[in-house]
Amino acid sequence: MVRITEELLRKRAEHNEGIVSTLEEVSLHQYEIEKIENFDKYCRHIQILLLQNNIVERLENLSKLKQLKYLNVALNNIIKIENLENCESLVKLDLTCNFIEAEYFEESLYNLKKVASIRELYLTGNPCTDWPGWKDLTIAIVDQLTRIEGEDVVPSQRIKAKQNFEQLMESLQLFIEQVRIKKKEEEGKEVSEGAYTRENRRKMYLEMGKEREEKERRENPKKFEENEPSPMFLANGEIRQCNEGKYDFLLNEWDDPEMTVFEMKIPKYLNTSLIDVNINPKWVSVRVKGKLTQLRLTEEIAVEKSTTQRSQTTGVLLIKMPKVTPNLILKKQNERMQKEKAQVKPNVIQATNDEETKTAPAPKQSFKDQKVDFDDIPDLE
Fold first, then answer.
1. Which residues pair with 321 in a beta bridge?
2. Of these four, 27, 131, 184, 376, which has the most CB atoms within 10 Å of its CB?
3. Is 332 helix (H, G, I), strand (E, B) or coil?
4. DSSP states of 274-325 as a string?
């Protein structure tokens, strides 16, 4: 049995740079998937979901996919249309070759009617389509549909279906009763291995999946080997300093007397779930996709007060670690430098003012402001 996990979704999100959270389309056909799960947890923005040719038993865990427009679950083991009423953007639903019986047909249609956005439906290959009136009843109940099996629903067809609604319901009940009688007659009879039933189909798909896995194990055994994480300690018990992923990093212990800062450049599209941070009073380590980057610290830090953040735009990982004992020497150096800067600034301002005073031209005096000394005026001859 294959589960829909974050790892599987990331593998199928290569067209989206491996980013699962913004995934809009995903194809998971022929994976022997039995249950729809985890899309609401990892990729709520999904718009196109292709799950054909699996062994899905029921429609479930889709209510939070508000942007889902197209759901393809053809060739599965579904017996009823349900749990889609909250998929408010769903336009197209493909249920070709499932196991929707006539007894669940009416309920399925009324469940689908709750999806106001639905416009296109495919049901060929389901047991309910053995009843000749299935299309007309679908049009009469789910009146927002505009296409069935790839054909447009014309107004006259819709009017006629609504007019014949009561007769269609009577015909359906008669057909259901006939199916029940037939099943009762066949009770106790051995079902052939090649019969197209939910049980046989499930068994066949699980056997096919097992055979495919065994073949892959023979051809590529390394793929199934569990890689042990690289050691964090040396043989003598000391911390191993390394950068296995060759990521750019910066460890700053001297700019701030009270804080040690570690920065690491990680690709922005890499999912944060693949990053494991381990902070110790004497060292810091980060594993990215299993690759270890680890450094010793010269000063002890307070682990419980440390914080870890990651930029959504650049992907840079930032770890701030307060020191247990502030570096007093570094603190005094910083204080002295700040004092020197504070003293230099007023001196520069004073020097600038003095220079301006020296170079400033004498103010011009108006004629009225000038004082005349008559002793300085020469006698006229």
1. 260
2. 131
3. helix
4. GEEEEEETTEEEEEETTEEEEEE-SS-B-GGG-EEEE-TTT--EEEEEEBSS
Token readout for 90 is 């769903």
CA–CA gap between residue 256 and residue 252 (Å, rounded):
8
Where are any strands of DSSP class E within the chain?
Answer: 25-27, 48-50, 70-72, 92-94, 120-122, 147-148, 151-152, 242-243, 249-252, 259-264, 275-280, 283-288, 291-296, 307-310, 317-322
Confidence of residue 377 (pLDDT cuts 50, 70, 90): very low
Q: Which of 192, 179, 13 is nearest to 99 (CA)?
A: 179
CB 302 within 8 A of CB 324: yes
The C-alpha atoms of residue 159 and residue 140 are separated, in whole angstroms, by 8
Listing DSSP states for 208-249 in one string gives HHHHHHHHHHHH-GGGG--PPPPPSB-TTSPBPPEETT---E
Task: Indicate whether 332 pLDDT > 50.
Answer: yes
Q: Which of 50-59, 165-174, 319-328 has the lowest mean pLDDT?
A: 319-328
Residue 363 in tokens: 């103010």
Question: Is the pLDDT assigned to residue 31 strictly greater than 60?
Answer: yes
Backbone dihedral angles phi then psi of residue 82, each to the nearest 5 degrees: -160, 165
Average pLDDT over residues 115-129: 96
Q: Which are the contacts of 136, defined by CB distance < 8 A and separation ≥ 6?
A: 157, 160, 161, 164, 168
Query: Percentage of the chain with pLDDT > 90?
Result: 56
Neighbours of 365 (CB within 10 A): 9
Contact predicate 285/294, CB 8 Å: yes
